[in-house]
Model the fold of this input.
Amino acid sequence: MKSYFIKEKDFNLFVKKMIESKKVVGPVAKKKKFVFANLKNAADLRLDFDVTILPPKKEFFPTCQMLIKFDGSKFESGVHSEEKILFGVHFYDIKGIDMTDHLFNENNSDCNYLTNREKTTIVGSNIQNVAPRSFWGTIGKDLKPKGHDAFLTKIQDGYVFQTLTDKGEALIKFGTFGAAADAQVQEADRVNDSVMSQCPEKLQHSSKDIAKKVRGSFKNKELWASAAKDCFSCGSCNIVCPTCYCFDIQDKWNVDQKTGSRARYWDACLTKEFAEISMGEGKSENFREERGARFRHRIMRKAAYQTEKLGSPACVGCGRCSNACTADIADPVNVINRIMEEPV
Ligand code: SF4
Ligand code: SF4
Done:
């Protein structure tokens, strides 16, 4: 790792030069909220964002992704990835990307995701404002963020910019960087450490204890039915989540019945149709028909099933689901704390 420093007054020029060189995606304001979007001007970059509406995974795994176009027996790939810089990613979203990297890489690796992922340089940034429903300070603390190429921390009079890979190091040429002094690196460490205690929501137990207790509550039908009582089955909690990765494949045929395309769309396990499968002869079966069963599945995935595989819960504490849920029942902190209070 190399540590550089860039002065506040030189920072916008650095971003401008990057934008002139390739596509740069970063947090920008959208009314009172924030989204990751293509940066057109350096001044649009809002590193003071608290959390974005959708996580940055959409840069590798778009909400709708054309996979192939076909014509009779011929077909061509519909995935055309381009080199880009994903700039200003908070550490919890870096963890989320690391998890989707793992999940799209295991067994049959998903080239449609990986092609986009490999062409992206990821630059993290420190959290300047804490989102109202976040709890990243108390979940998965043992798992360190990894997979990014550089990390930027705002300190007095400028930024410490730490490069971790060749792709990160390649950005140095765009700015007026000097070597960071030890005191500046220590200040950056202090800035990143001190924010960890500022989340408004907190989990009280270790990931291991949570995984065990949540798993043990699987058969408590009453608990799950009660937790999901007000659920609209809208799937918003899945759609905004950085670690959800389910998709639906749809083929579209043109009127000639010869040409067409295949695309995939984000899917959500909280919706009623998600687990409905064809049984042939016009019949179907839904293996998670009850709201409680769907709600349980989401919490099991986040807090229990994936913990061994990922070394941490499949929840990074961003709080997006809590913000997105109209019924205000999706917040993992409330659900987990309730489960932890249940008698064994
Ligand atoms: S479950 Fe909610 S808080 Fe956890 S990572 Fe997903 S959206 Fe964020
Ligand atoms: S966002 Fe809330 S209401 Fe919608 S599916 Fe999730 S838990 Fe149910």
